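Quiz preparation item.
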C-alpha cells in the first residue's frame, strides 16, 4: 500500500493528498473521467453531430467551430495533425460539442469532450473527457446483458464506479484514467446505452465499495469457472476483499463456464516466432509448471527443439488472444500434432463474477449482498456519507 489519502467532502468533491503534503493541493475531480478510446492508431474517423468548438490543446486558442463536422479522417503527420486535406500545425486539439451534440469516433458515438493527441511516432491518442455517471452508462451496458436482474446490474454498476474512481485518483499524473476496452472496463459510449443498465447506474448514483477506510480496485470478470482468484495476479494487491478463494458454482449457466480450444503445434510455433519470444523451433510440449491456489495456470513452459520459454498465464493468453484462451483456468491434453486446452471461465477470475452475480440476484440477493459475497468484509457507502472522513487509496501495480 502507499500513502494516498482521500477526503470525501461531498458527492462531487473528493480530495487526495500524498502523506506529508497539504490537502489543498490540486486534486482530480470526480465530475468526469478520462477514457482512452483510441491508443496508438495511425488514423481515426471523426464526425460531429451538432455544433462544436475546437481548440489548440496546449494554448487553448480557437481553431475551428461550426454547426457540424462531416466525416473526416484524422492523421498524425510530421507538421502536426491532418484533418482530411487540412493540416493543423498542432500536436493536439480539444473538441467541445454543444450540449445537444455528439462526437462520433470510428463509428462510436460519445458523450462529453474529446482530445486528439499526435504522439512522437505519429500515431494518435484519443481521450474522451466524460461525466463519470455518463461514462458508467456506457460501461454497464457493455459489461452485462440488459435483461439481467436489476440487483445484479446495480452490483456491477457500483463495482464499475468504484473501479473508475480508484483509477481516477491513482492515475492523476497519467494522460488518462482508463482505457475504453476490456483491459480496463469495456466502454461503448452513448451508442451502447440501454434503458435497464442506465436505470441501474442512476439507482446507485454515488455508491462505492470500501474495505473499512480503504478504497481498492474492484476488479470483476465474466465467469470465474468455480472459484475466484487472488488479486496478486493483477499486481501487488493484498487486501481481504481481493484475496479470492470464493467458491462459486453460481456461474454454471454461463456459456463460458466450460470451453475447449485446440492449438496446433504449428500455430504455437508461428505465434511465438511472431512475438518478442522468438522462434523455439518445432514445438515439443506445453506444460503448466505452476498453478495458483485457485488452480489457474501461473507459469507455462513451452518447449521447442531449440529452447524452452516460460510464460505467465496472462502472457500465454495474450499470445493467442484473450477471446481464444478465455481464462488461465485450464488443463492441457497433448496430441500428436496439437494440444487441447480444456478450460473453465472467462477472465482473470479476480473479484466479482458477473454470471455468478446474475444468479445470486435471481435467488433474491440484493446488490449489497452480492458485493459482500465476492468482496468479503466490505461496505457499500455513498460519497456523501464519507464527507470529512479520511480514506486510504491502496497502492498496487495495475
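Solution:
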Amino acid at each position: 500500500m502507499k500513502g494516498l489519502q482521500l477526503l470525501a467532502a461531498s458527492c462531487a468533491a473528493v480530495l487526495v493528498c500524498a502523506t506529508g503534503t497539504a490537502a489543498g493541493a490540486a486534486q482530480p475531480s470526480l465530475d468526469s473521467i478520462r477514457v482512452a478510446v483510441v491508443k496508438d492508431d495511425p488514423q481515426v474517423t471523426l464526425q460531429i453531430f451538432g455544433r462544436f468548438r475546437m481548440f489548440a490543446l496546449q494554448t487553448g486558442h480557437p481553431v475551428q467551430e461550426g454547426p457540424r463536422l462531416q466525416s473526416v479522417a484524422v492523421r498524425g503527420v510530421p507538421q502536426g495533425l491532418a484533418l482530411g486535406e487540412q493540416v493543423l500545425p498542432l500536436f493536439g486539439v480539444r473538441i467541445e460539442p454543444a450540449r445537444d451534440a455528439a462526437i462520433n469516433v470510428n463509428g462510436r458515438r460519445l458523450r462529453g469532450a474529446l482530445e486528439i493527441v499526435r504522439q512522437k511516432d505519429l500515431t494518435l491518442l484519443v481521450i474522451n473527457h466524460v461525466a463519470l455517471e455518463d461514462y458508467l452508462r456506457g460501461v454497464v451496458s457493455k459489461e452485462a446483458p440488459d435483461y439481467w436482474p436489476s440487483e445484479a446490474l446495480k452490483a456491477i454498476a457500483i463495482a464499475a464506479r468504484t473501479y473508475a474512481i480508484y483509477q481516477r485518483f491513482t492515475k492523476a499524473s497519467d494522460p488518462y484514467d482508463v482505457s475504453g476496452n476490456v483491459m480496463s472496463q469495456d466502454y461503448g459510449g452513448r451508442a451502447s446505452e440501454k434503458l435497464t443498465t442506465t436505470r441501474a447506474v442512476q439507482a446507485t448514483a454515488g455508491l462505492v465499495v470500501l474495505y473499512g477506510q480503504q478504497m481498492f480496485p474492484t476488479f470483476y470478470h465474466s465467469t470465474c469457472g468455480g472459484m475466484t482468484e487472488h488479486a496478486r495476479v493483477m499486481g501487488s494487491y493484498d487486501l481481504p476483499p481481493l484475496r479470492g478463494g470464493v467458491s462459486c458454482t453460481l456461474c454454471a449457466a454461463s456459456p463460458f463456464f466450460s470451453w475447449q480450444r485446440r492449438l496446433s503445434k504449428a500455430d504455437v510455433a508461428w505465434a511465438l516466432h511472431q512475438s518478442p519470444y522468438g522462434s523455439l523451433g518445432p514445438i515439443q510440449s506445453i506444460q503448466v509448471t505452476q498453478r495458483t491456489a485457485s488452480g489457474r495456470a501461473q507459469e507455462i513452459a513451452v518447449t521447442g527443439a531449440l529452447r524452452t520459454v516460460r510464460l505467465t498465464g496472462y502472457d500465454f493468453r495474450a499470445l493467442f488472444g484473450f477471446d481464444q484462451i478465455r481464462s488461465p483456468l485450464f488443463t492441457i491434453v497433448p496430441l500428436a500434432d496439437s494440444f487441447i486446452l480444456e478450460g473453465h471461465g472467462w477472465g482473470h477470475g479476480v473479484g466479482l463474477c458477473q454470471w455468478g452475480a446474475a444468479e445470486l440476484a435471481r435467488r433474491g440477493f440484493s446488490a449489497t449482498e452480492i458485493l459482500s459475497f465476492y468482496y468479503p468484509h466490505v461496505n457499500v457507502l455513498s460519497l456523501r456519507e464519507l464527507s470529512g472522513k479520511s480514506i486510504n487509496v491502496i497502492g498496487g501495480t495495475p
